[in-house]
Amino acid sequence: MPAPPDAHDEDPGPSARRRRSTYPRTASGDLQSKRAIIIKAGLFLLLGCLAGGLLLGSILTLRNVFLLGLTIWSFCRFYYFAFYVIEHYLDSSYQYRGLVDLIRHYWRRR
């Protein structure tokens, strides 16, 4: 008896297939391994913690801790806006690959 399909295996529908097909394929392809994705996320977390620790270690003041935290929080919110809010609420006709792609798309529409 076959196993039930995973929620990630479901067909996203024709509109999502069209959006996905607009991207040029790269030689390396997309990262498919769940383990590799988790390792990559862990390495980003480690890199961020090391960089923040080294930065704060050299200039440890309450003001700098607050400003670094505010900077990180602000860029995280901007990232969320750029890739989730725009795609889901402002322009659902286009799926972005990065900030440069986002800027090019809106520059061409002007």
Automatic annotation (TrEMBL):
* Domain of life where this protein originates: Bacteria
**Annotated transmembrane regions:** 41-60, 66-86
What UniProt keywords apply to this chain's record, in alphabetical order? Membrane, Transmembrane, Transmembrane helix
Q: Where is the composition biased (Basic and acidic residues)?
A: 1-11
> According to the UniProt record, where is the region Disordered?
1-28
* Name of the protein: Transmembrane protein
Q: Which organism is it from?
A: Allorhodopirellula solitaria
